[in-house]
Design a protein that fits this description.
Layout: H1 18-24, E1 32-33, E2 39-40, H2 47-80, E3 90-93, E4 96-111, E5 117-133, E6 147-150, E7 155-156, E8 180-190, E9 196-201, E10 210-213
Antiparallel strand pairs: 1-2, 3-4, 4-5, 5-8, 6-7, 6-9, 9-10
């Protein structure tokens, strides 16, 4: 009588099979085997994807930083673009249109009305301006809210002697709509040798004002 030995089926695994032991352990990561018997990693852990993903993250970070920097650079030229117009240019504040026609520096003294000699603490600067009422109501030109600036940004109010000049009456007369007052003298008393850089012209003390370059 011949002995009959049972042959284990090819799909069964014994206790020595390491693959079966690994799969049996609770909490072990799920793996799959390909045809060669090697375990397959999940797609996001594959080596060939690691470098491209890292490069994408770096590129996005660089673009974000550069975009933030570019946004900050846009505002700077806009501020620098605001340049005051020159002498002879028509400018407007409220219902007054101004044209600066010239700048004079008579020095320490200046002839006022009725032969009066005006004396400056420093020296006089006279800015001559034509003023047109472009509004619909008659207006007066204020002598107190016109300001001179030097090249360092220092602000000068009109000299009190302005009302003792020959043009003083131009500050009290009414300007009708469409009418122009020619050659108004705006008088300033500044330190000797100070550079007159800009004048700020106003229709009213509380109006925004407009600047004109004098040099």
């Amino acid at each position: 009588m011949s002995d009959h030995h049972s042959t284990p089926s090819s799909w069964s695994t014994g206790p020595e099979d390491p693959t079966a032991q690994t799969a049996a352990q609770p909490g072990a990561p799920a793996t799959t085997e390909n045809a060669s018997g090697k375990a397959n990693r999940p797609w996001f852990r594959k080596k060939w994807l690691t470098l491209p993903l890292a490069l994408i993250v770096v590129i996005l970070a660089v673009l974000a930083v550069n975009g933030a920097r570019d946004t900050g650079k846009v505002a700077t030229p806009a501020k620098a673009a605001a340049v005051a117009p020159d002498i002879g240019t028509k400018v407007r504040d409220g219902s007054f249109e101004f044209v600066v026609t010239g700048v004079e520096r008579p020095g320490k003294t200046f002839m006022g009305k009725v032969g009066e000699t005006l004396t400056a603490q420093g020296e006089f600067v006279i800015v001559r301006v034509d003023v047109t009422n472009v509004g619909t109501k008659e207006q007066r030109l204020s002598c107190a809210c016109q300001y001179l600036f030097n090249d360092k940004g220092t602000k000068f109010a009109p000299s009190p002697s302005i009302l003792r000049t020959k043009d003083a009456l131009k500050y009290v007369e009414w300007i009708n709509p469409g009418a122009t007052v020619k050659d108004v003298s705006m008088l300033f008393d500044i330190s000797a040798g100070t550079k007159a850089d800009e004048i700020e012209l106003h229709q009213l003390p509380y109006s925004p004002g407009v600047n004109v370059k004098l040099s």
